Amino acid sequence: MYWSMYQETQEPTEDICYDTAHVTEVLSAIEENFFTYFENFVDFNATKNFGRIIGTAIKNFEHDRDDYKEIFSAEAMEEYEDDTNAFKSDVLKNDCPVIRKTLNSKRKELEQFKSSFKRADANELFEKFTNICAFGREYFKSYDSATYESAKTFYDLGMEFLDEDECSLSSVVGVGIKSRILYKLYPMIFPNESQNSIWSLYFLSGQEAFDCDYGSEFLMIDDKDFVTRQNYSYPYRLFAYYAFEIYKLLEREATKINLPLEKSYRYVVVDSFLSSVADKHEEDIKTFKRNIANEGYGYGWS
């Protein structure tokens, strides 16, 4: 459990979370709890429902995908370089679905993003998105499905660069936005680290701390509103590996019913499953988000 007031001086995740033994322990818990959530995901009938659910997820995924492809193509990014103010105030603000929806949202917790986006330097914003997109293109160029699937650790997936300052801008370009963009461009490579995804890892892992000093690595306390939230700074390199392993569990279940999963939509399948986990715990998440200042010192589970 982390306090957001320390985000500038404290890593969002403890060192232990990168240890092989820790990752193995978390994965074991996820696998142990997986089937219960899978049964809920397919409404207790995989043969009848699994393929239909994935088909719907892919259809929904494709709904606005062309917007991302058009905005963040290499050719388009080269053109934006001549007018970064237009890139920020027109392209990102009005055309990029994830940013447009965030700016138009009435949710209180997004007010900081809105004000930070307004103040952000256009050249710096452009630089961050250029780095993110360039990384995605280069990764895709060298992508080989067999090599990718042979990964044994998060290091093997090679996502570290996305956690670096070159791809981040405080309160503006966080893991949610950059992962959403790459997920829309290359869903076979980059999972979508959404709010639901991190909440889901918390529940899938059995709500355990796994020897972390500050409690679950998947949660944090927002010091401004004094509510418990998902760890919105959770390192992408770790999240990507857990999503990678969860896909294997889903693929295992698909094999049992002779359902071929399209590798080109690998993380659409994972995203759909993780969303169902979060939906199952909707009331629990609401409880976590209550203002803990009015309930004494607690984290929502006491």
The largest sheet is: 3 strands, mixed
**Domains (count):** 1
- Percent strand equals under 5%
SSE sequence, one letter per element: EHHHHHHHHHHHHEEHHH
**What overall form do the CA principal axes indicate?**
globular
Continuous helix count: 15
Mean pLDDT: 91
Percentage of residues assigned to helices: 55-70%
According to DSSP, the number of beta strands is 3
Structural class: mainly alpha
Strands across the major sheet, in which order?
1-2-3
Q: What is the end-to-end distance?
A: 14 Å
* Rg calculated over all Cα atoms: 19 Å
Unreliable spans are 5-10, 292-302
Task: Give the tags.
302 residues, mainly alpha, three-stranded mixed β-sheet, 3% strand
